[in-house]
Backbone:
């Protein structure tokens, strides 16, 4: 998978994507992440990419021209990977508080794509015409507002990147994460077996895989009922 990211503050993305699992994913060749400074396509020599809102109001708006030029330029570079491919990007994603809420089901679907372009908003947002004519998917990571889309982009890349086959050392690990089956993950334990009199549940120490699987499912179900009953309604 290749992911291109458009940003006016690319330095905010460097650290999250250059460590741990995302670093290994790129080193192994399972994932390519390219961060592009939007000011390369600025409207003047001063690097301008934003302007005042029509109709008044606080906050600057990212302009049509630099965003359109950037998206078109990068799209042309994404040539078809195989005969029959359409080229360009499978999705042009804009991160925005009023987008569709990111969840595991969406992450699973996006992780199957080959080419993604993520547009990071900043200031008061981006000109609506870019959303209407270029963006194919709008995503929110929660009901709150960030200073820009960079941190949300890092969350999205991490969420989908770890699902790419081969990225995790144990490929079954992602399949047992919370939300994969609309259930929260069960409690987990490690050594020592007895710490200050707090013991690991007997089922986990039994060596009986059927019993262990049943215990984990029961714990997942109980935890979901207690903390996220809305997920069980979706499961129905």
Residues:
């Amino acid at each position: 998978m290749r992911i291109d990211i458009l940003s006016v503050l690319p330095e905010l993305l460097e650290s999250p994507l250059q460590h741990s699992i995302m670093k290994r994913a790129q080193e192994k060749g399972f994932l390519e992440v390219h961060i592009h400074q939007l000011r390369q396509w600025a409207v003047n020599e001063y690097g301008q990419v934003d302007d005042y809102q029509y109709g008044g109001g606080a906050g600057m708006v990212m302009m049509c021209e630099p965003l359109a030029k950037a998206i078109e330029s990068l799209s042309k570079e994404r040539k078809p990977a195989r005969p029959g491919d359409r080229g360009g990007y499978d999705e042009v994603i804009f991160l925005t508080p009023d987008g569709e809420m990111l969840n595991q089901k969406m992450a699973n679907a996006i992780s199957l794509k080959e080419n993604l372009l993520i547009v990071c908003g900043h200031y008061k947002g981006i000109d609506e015409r870019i959303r209407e004519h270029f963006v194919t998917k709008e995503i929110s990571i929660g009901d709150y507002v960030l200073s820009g889309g960079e941190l949300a982009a890092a969350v999205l890349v991490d969420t989908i990147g770890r699902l790419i086959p081969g990225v995790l050392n144990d490929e079954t690990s992602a399949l047992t994460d919370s939300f994969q089956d609309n259930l929260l993950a069960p409690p987990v334990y490690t050594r020592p077996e007895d710490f200050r009199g707090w013991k690991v549940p007997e089922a986990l120490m039994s060596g009986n895989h059927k019993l262990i699987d049943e215990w984990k499912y029961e714990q997942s179900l109980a935890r979901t009922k207690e903390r996220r009953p809305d997920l069980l309604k979706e499961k129905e």
Notes: The longest strand covers residues 91-101.
